[in-house]
Specification:
about 300 residues; alpha/beta; Spore Coat Polysaccharide Biosynthesis Protein SpsA, Chain A; 9-stranded mixed sheet; globular; binds uridine 5'-triphosphate
Length: about 300
């Protein structure tokens, strides 16, 4: 039986430049989908997957994340006095089930570097990485599915999704072994990795399996990342660290069953907003009526 996954790492030190000016004084992880900041969706997924120990990699200007997961004494007593029990329960839920630790990434030197700065907090055990930008509606939760695969294959598991050709240059892309007989043994949607390449040109991509924001990693990723050089943009890419690790051990990918939204870009964020509003029993009907009433031919004047 593989070692249990007890910790989930949330890299959240990126600058969120695609959302400027909204992210000038506010972390993009705190942008709101209906009534919850984006990062809370990922944290709840970890808790629902049996992983209540959260490690968040932050940077300058990210204090709102720490405040959000901290106990808000004044707010709680205010809600208590006013008898606002539902709201009180809602905000207590955020802090009660969690154990959160923070580590700073002094400079945003890439996702691989963000994982590396958490080395001491993770220690010598396997762990999950969740990129909060990817909000996944799934049952069982996406991370739970990943953990189940990890328990079966006993090695690192990377979440992938088949992406449209035009999106290939925005993803880490994996080449996988023919899932003939072995694919069958590994189970639905699980493949063994042959190679990984970060943001290839469309014509150079070995497949359309794009890496998305969920990983189960083993502690040997740390020396692999330490040995990984920065790329042309000065960043240490997690994909390149995984490529190095692949020389030493088998890696697996898994196609998650669920609906993923990439809230890290504006269109993806807007789609997620509509999607999650429509999942709320109190909002779905009036919101649908509103959407239907819109004159969708309104366009940008040219
Ligand atoms: P992205 O490249 O999507 O996020 O990183 P970004 O840099 O915040 O946003 P843009 O591209 O400027 O709009 C993916 C994830 O990795 C984290 C980000 O916070 C995000 O969750 N990250 C990225 C770090 O923690 N540190 C880094 O140095 C880079």
């Amino acid at each position: 039986m593989a070692t249990p996954i007890r910790k989930a790492l949330f890299p959240a030190a990126g600058l969120g430049t695609r959302f400027l000016p909204a992210t000038k004084a506010q972390p993009k992880e705190m942008l709101v989908l209906v009534d919850k900041p984006i990062i809370q969706y990922g944290v709840e997924e970890a808790v629902q997957s049996g992983v209540p120990n959260i490690v968040i990699v932050t940077g300058r200007g990210k204090n709102a994340i720490e405040d959000h997961f901290d106990v808000a004494v004044e707010l709680e007593s205010f809600l208590e006095q006013r008898g606002k029990t539902a709201q009180l329960e809602e905000i207590r839920k955020i802090t009660r089930q969690l154990n959160v630790a923070y580590v700073r990434q002094g400079e945003p030197l890439g996702l691989g570097h963000a994982v590396l700065v958490a080395k001491n907090l993770i220690g010598e055990e396997p762990f999950a990485v969740i990129l909060g930008d990817d909000v996944i509606d799934a049952n069982p939760p996406a991370l739970k599915q990943m953990i189940d695969v990890y328990q079966r294959v006993g090695g690192p598991v990377i979440a992938v999704e088949r992406v449209p050709d035009e999106d290939i240059p925005s993803y880490g892309i994996v080449a996988v072994e023919d899932s003939g007989a072995e694919g069958g043994d590994l189970g639905r949607g699980v493949h063994r990795v042959k190679d990984l390449v970060e943001k290839p040109r469309r014509e150079d991509a070995p497949s359309n399996l794009g890496i998305i924001g969920r990983y189960i990693l083993t502690p040997d990723i740390f020396p692999a990342l330490e040995a990984t050089a920065s790329d042309r943009t000065g960043e240490i890419q997690l994909t390149n660290g995984l490529r190095r690790l692949l020389r030493e051990r088998p890696l697996y990918v898994y196609e998650i069953e669920g609906v993923r939204h990439d809230t890290g870009n504006k269109l993806g964020f807007l789609k997620a907003l509509v999607y999650f509003a429509m999942r709320r029993p109190d909002l779905a009907e009036p919101f649908r009526r509103y959407l239907e009433s819109l004159d969708l031919k309104i366009g940008v004047e040219t």
